[in-house]
Amino acid sequence: AKASAQERICLFEDYMQAEFDDRKALENDLHLALERDEFELYYQAQVEVVTLNLRGLEALVRWNHPTRGQIPPGVFIPIAEEIGLIVELGRKILLTACTEAAKWKQPLKIAVNLSPIQLQAPNIVEIVMGILKDTGLAPERLELEMTETVLLNDRKRVFKILNDLRALGVTIAMDDFGTGYSSLAILRDIPFDTIKLDKSFVRDIALNPEAEALVRLVIDVGNHLGKTVIIEGIETDAQHECIRRIGCQVSQGFLFARPVQASKLDFLHWSDAEL
Ligand code: C2E
Ligand code: CA
Ligand code: CA
Ligand code: CA
Fold it and tell me: Where along the sequence do coiled-coil regions lie (predicted)?
């Protein structure tokens, strides 16, 4: 029999209550997770499109939850941002990534994602400077990735922070480029070094001339501005072939490598980079 309207409302309320409880439980667990060190960094290769040499690795955090298993960053990073844990979590991530990268035999780039909230933390420049000093990582090996959403905040202040970070020698990447609200003008205005074109742009690139034209445009603009352009989300040989033809230099995607644990990095075989 069909549930009455009243019954359906009750079911809905139960559902909402369960969602709410689950969310509260995750929030509590996140606090504990920081103390218990349940976070782990995976690393995904950034490769030169023509040679397949490694350009660097992007650090991507996972949460090894004691009972729920591995939780992806898309689930817990937004919660950490909301409950005020992202600054501490982000500092730990940056420290771990720089510590690991300082041990690699090859001086590859290490790219680390920064939450907009982390970027606004009062002493972010000092934090980055301190971590570089403590780990001994050469500043030019560190690339900080951030999305266009940083621009929702006070632009003048954000630009100053980005300039101060670049003055340390680190490079700045605009992540998920093309998915935000902003226009091409940000490429002219923001102090940054690298454009990461979002994976939504390459999905149909091998099938659809319009998609190819857009990617070509971003690569041309990037080249003219002297930026490195990284195309994300390369999954097929056809997509790889296409971006090679267009003249893209660096890309990242499952075709080349999935994100792997630090301990697995030496199982990657690259033409002439040895980790
Ligand atoms: P993102 O920075 O855009 O990272 C790229 C995401 O795309 C990663 O998902 C990666 O596994 C996935 N990816 C890479 N290649 C391919 C591909 O060929 N196809 C497809 N379909 N996906 C691909 P992941 O690791 O789940 O991370 C999701 C997002 O979580 C990241 O997106 C980033 O916004 C955030 N995130 C991850 N680690 C951190 C971190 O340490 N700090 C902060 N603040 N955010 C992080
Ligand atoms: Ca990223
Ligand atoms: Ca991205
Ligand atoms: Ca993303």
Answer: none
Q: Which ligand does the CA of 145 lie closest to?
A: 2
Ligand 1-lining residues (CB < 6 angstroms): 44, 59-61, 72-74, 77, 90, 93, 113, 115, 175-176, 199, 233-235, 252-254, 259
Which atom, in ligand 1's list, is nearest to the CA of 196? 3
- Kindly give the confidence (pLDDT) of every residue in the chain, 275 residues in length, as a single tens digit, with 9 standing for 90 and above: 677 888 888 888 888 888 888 889 999 999 999 999 999 999 999 999 999 999 999 999 999 999 999 999 999 999 999 999 999 999 999 999 999 999 998 899 999 999 999 999 989 999 999 999 999 999 999 999 999 888 888 889 999 999 999 999 999 999 999 887 777 888 888 899 999 999 999 998 988 889 999 999 999 999 999 999 999 999 999 999 999 999 999 999 999 999 999 888 874 444 454 44
Radius of gyration for the alpha carbons in the chain, expressed in angstroms and rounded = 21
Paired with 142 in beta bridges are 110
Q: Compute, in angstroms, the gap from residue 74 CA to the centroid of ligand 1.
A: 8
Q: Tell me the best of 38, 113, 128 to mutate to test the pocket of ligand 1, counting ligand atoms within 8 Å of each CB and taking the most.
A: 113
CA–CA separation, 202 and 57 (whole Å): 20
Q: Give the residue whose CA is nearest to atom 43 of ligand 1.
A: 113
Partners of residue 59 on adjacent β-strands: 43, 112
118 near 80, Cβ under 8 Å? no
Q: How far apart are CA 147 and CA 190, in angstroms?
A: 12
